[in-house]
């Protein structure tokens, strides 16, 4: 088996750590839209903005890992189906919402990742040039569909919204499938780069990352193409900068992906062969990302339950999500803590999960049981 590349695992671990920050903010942070540039503070905006890197990088590196691991179509398809099942059962009931009533079902990241792996399982039978063309067209061209309204299938593929709203059960697509499938396919093609010499690999990553950032600037500043929401000049100059950076994530626009994947490629080049020692925890977490992901959500939700009990002496709100507006739980009156508390809890969550992830990483290294590859 080909040795794992530390740079990929470290970057994956970094985004997993950042992902926990976003979810801690969701569960215990003060209410409000962190991307509302007219109201959100710069600290709140960038707390949300830095976590924008998580999903694109994870999808990209999923494809890269599939190439380097020589994943077979059958494995990709079955693992994709497994992720979708996890999203709709254990993660939904024991992670996000802490209830089993299915009154609100949100199709989130594992849903899109599962379908991306299934599509990749079909694509890997074709030449890499075909996969690259598919990725490029999907990522660069999907914004041509902006403004189009369709039925449930279109919403699943490219929109964001309710696909089944018959009371009392609601199904909401938070992660439309396109272009996540394109990002995963692009990651598969990126895997070829990691078979090159270290010098050639780093040179490509730097050039590709810089080109993506430059293209973001060229397309974003004049509002030419690539995002359904145009940036607008604000009364305060700093808010104008925030507006420029406030690219659309659902579904991820071309500009959103250029803004996030460009710097990610530069970080990959920096990490290649010389990851700093202080990032060794990220290396461990990056080797067991799904295990970490499935643990961190219920842990964060449990912490919110404890906070709720300490503050109100009751916890029933934490188990109630009867409507879309009260997902993933019903906020008690006056709920929420400031960013310093959010950051403190985030650090505690990551620190608490680290020893468990070390144990599981050791288990995976010592055992080659095929079932471990699904977690």
Summarize the structure.
The protein is mainly alpha-helical and 375 residues long. It is 61% helix and 3% strand.
Question: How would you portray this structure in words?
Answer:
With 375 residues, this protein is mainly α. The chain contains 15 helices and 3 strands. Strands 1-3-2 form a 3-stranded mixed sheet. Helix 10 packs antiparallel against helix 12 (254-271). The model has no long low-confidence stretch (mean pLDDT 94).
Largest beta sheet: strand ordering: 1-3-2
**Which radius of gyration do the C-alpha atoms yield?**
20 Å
Structural class label: mainly alpha
Content of β-strand: under 5%
Order of helices and strands: HHHHHEHHHEEHHHHHHH
**Based on DSSP secondary structure assignment, what is the total number of beta strands?**
3
**Distance, first to last CA:** 19 Å
Oligomer: single chain
Give the helix tally.
15
Rounded mean pLDDT is 94
What is the percent of helical residues?
55-70%
Poorly predicted runs are none
Global morphology: globular
* Largest sheet properties: 3 strands, mixed
